[in-house]
Amino acid sequence: MRIVEIPSFFPPYGGEFCMEQAKALASLGHEVTILAHVQLGVTVYPRGWLRAKTKSRHLKEDGVSIVNTEMRGLPRCPKINTRRWIAGVRRLFAAYIAEGGMPDVIHAHCCKWAGYAACLLHREYGIPYVVTEHLSSQLLAEELGEPRSGIWQADLLREAYKEADRVIPVAEELVDDIAPYFGKDYRWTAISNIVDTDFFHFQPRPDLEGRRFRFCCVAHYIPVKGYDVLFRAFELLCEENDKAELHIAGRFTAGRECRQAIEALGLGDRVVNHGELDKEDVRHLLYTCDCLVLASRGEAQGLVLLEAMATGIPVVTTDRVPRNALVEGGSLVVPVDDAAALAQAMFRMIEHYPEASASLSHKIAEMCSPKAVGQRIASVLEAATLKTAP
């Protein structure tokens, strides 16, 4: 298939999920081109905004062709910026067709606004499109506000969902999560995001003899990640067990607010704060720990849980994590915001520790490896092309 990928986000503002899926599809023999039109914000990225590369750049990475342009976003002009962004995507698409002809299918990442742009291209050219949805209601609320009637963005996006050949939420729970904004009048198939299982591969852990049991949490220090509950649970655990330590890492964990929360509970000598880590350092941290804990109040998927299990260690998390981030025999689930239940689950992990497991790692590879996810996405895209074949 000739596949055009349209991301809503791309470097310097994310885009990793789009790139991973594009590479997975290319590795299966498909011709994949990413048309990335990036809106730069003057307050978020002032230097880049001034130096915006408005002329298209052509790149190649791991078999994926990338055509990239940038535009300067206008402060406090969401409607104008949306129209300008969509116009930029349409220009890229017209140039793609002029150079090499029609693609077989369009694959958009996030309906806001790549999915809507794909919808307009479908109306103009008759090309089928599929939308992979990554955004949770929490992220949508930051821009759209709470669900209500009269949100102009929601009306447009609802059309794009309905006209898509298929919507791919990264977890089935996401359908109910975003329903207050967009309803459910569309066809969907849930497919997990990709876990780099070659990178996060299995590795045995050091023997527990003579050392503390090492829990870790890899998450930004923001309310939705539940660090307040985790710290309280760890305090309760330490009252019963002096052979555990907690390692934390993520954006804002090195900040004063996080450090004060740790000190307020007297956990300074039991919590190791690593701050924000890159991908390699996250893997190293996972390889030195025995169990990952995530006290999340909401996740679109919870990839860090899958990454931890891919390395062979079990996880403890809450019932706000989607089911496709959990594996039987590799995860314990407790009610959200219940520090006592979380502490009990952590204690259970210490008392009945399932040693780092190659079979657990293998299960994650079967679920979420680039090949496994790529094949599932390809089957959805191919089905879309067959429906419109002459």
TrEMBL record:
The keyword Glycosyltransferase applies. InterPro entries: Glyco_trans_1, Glyco_trans_4-like_N. The keyword Glycosyltransferase applies. SUPFAM superfamilies: UDP-Glycosyltransferase/glycogen phosphorylase. Its EC number is 2.4.-.-. GO terms for molecular function: glycosyltransferase activity. Gene3D superfamilies: Glycogen Phosphorylase B (3.40.50.2000). Coiled coil: none annotated. Pfam families: Glyco_trans_4_4 (PF13579), Glycos_transf_1 (PF00534). Residues 17-193 form the Glycosyltransferase subfamily 4-like N-terminal domain. It is an enzyme of class 2 (transferase). Keywords: Glycosyltransferase, Transferase. It comes from the Bacteria. Residues 209-355 form the Glycosyl transferase family domain. PANTHER family: GLYCOSYLTRANSFERASE. This is Glycosyltransferase. It comes from Candidatus Prevotella avicola.
